[in-house]
Design goal:
Blueprint lengths: L1 H15 L3 H6 L6 E8 L2 H14 L3 E9 L2 E7 L1 H7 L11 E8 L2 E7 L1 H7 L7 H11 L3 E3 L8 H4 L15 E5 L3 H13 L5 E8 L5 E8 L8 H8 L12 E6 L2 E4 L2 H8 L5 H6 L3 H13 L3
Antiparallel strand pairs: 1-5, 1-6, 2-3, 3-4, 4-5, 7-11, 8-9, 9-10, 10-11
Helix pairs in contact: 3-6
């Protein structure tokens, strides 16, 4: 990752000669915002956060507890779904993940930075209003999850872990069905049956398109793909990055996709070092296998 950052910095410095204003005006981004870190109980905090999000105009798409110390609340609204519809695979950004994570006696409340998500998923959408809604509901956040100073949006547009690793545009191609309806039916059936150790967390249909985003949990039954197994190995810092979960399956027309795990995990943990990444070197293939089973792929 640091090698990639060094090479990218050289490229950006070179680009300053040609477009100084464009790069200079871009803010530095980090993947998460932490809004509180205080004592409490999980059930009460989840209830409070959910109520605040709904009062601020968000719809709770699904709630997921991958392990006892974390609960993720996935939210959406009309504006976010409209933004997701603007680009070919913008559906990956149809929800914002909000996490309540217990660390010692405290509960951390955090959410994925909409600007990070928009740039990483090439959404071609300004999600500032979404971020303001989240801040209004949960409080002003402290950015975290990437070493200082962070990343520029144009860096995230070409994000990958290191050389020869997949980009956003290199997804898992999980299955191909005869139609959108057939694809939806297959994914619904696969998740309901728990194929590959999966289960449905949420479903969000993208307006005006034959496209749907499913939130998918990966249980212990999925082996090295399991959410708890992976997070216990990579989420070791004081400020937890639980809002990385759950994974998404995107149905677009008759095709079923998921972001490549090597991209998805690295994008959610941009400071992940190579030694930690090697601890989960079998996870990407295992995740692909589980999601492919859920999607009705061969």
């Amino acid at each position: 990752m640091k090698l990639f950052r060094s090479l990218l910095s050289v490229a950006l410095l070179t680009g300053l000669f040609f477009s100084p204003l464009v790069i200079a005006e871009q803010p530095w981004l980090k993947p998460y915002n932490m809004t509180s870190n205080a004592k409490g109980t999980m059930a009460a905090q989840v209830k409070s956060v959910s109520a605040a999000l709904q009062a601020a105009g968000f719809e709770i798409a699904g709630t997921y507890q991958p392990y006892a110390e974390a609960t993720i609340i996935s939210v959406t609204n009309a504006a976010l779904k409209t933004a997701a519809a603007k680009t070919e695979f913008g559906g990956y950004g149809a929800v914002v993940r909000v996490a309540v994570t217990q660390v010692g006696e405290n509960l951390q409340v955090s959410y994925v930075n909409p600007a990070w998500m928009s740039a990483s998923f090439k959404m071609d959408a300004d999600l500032t209003a979404i971020d303001k809604q989240l801040s209004a509901a949960l409080g002003a956040g402290t950015p975290y999850g990437a070493e200082n100073p962070g990343w520029k949006a144009n860096q995230l547009d070409e994000f990958h872990f290191t050389v020869f690793m997949p980009y956003f545009d290199d997804p898992f191609e999980l299955a191909e069905h005869a139609s959108y309806d057939a694809a939806i039916k297959a994914v619904e059936a696969g998740l309901a049956a728990g194929k590959g150790g999966t289960a449905k967390v949420f479903r969000v249909d993208i307006p005006g398109k034959k496209q749907t985003l499913f939130g998918v949990s990966l249980s212990k039954a999925s082996g090295s793909a399991g959410d708890e197994h992976i997070m216990k190995l990579i989420d070791g810092r004081d400020m937890k990055q639980s809002a990385h979960l759950p994974y998404g399956i995107l149905v677009s027309e008759g095709n079923v996709y998921a972001l490549h795990a090597k991209f998805r995990i690295a994008n959610a943990f941009p400071d992940l070092d190579m030694s930690t990444f090697f601890k989960i070197n079998d996870a990407p293939d295992a995740i692909e296998s589980s999601l492919k089973q859920a999607a009705g792929g061969e």
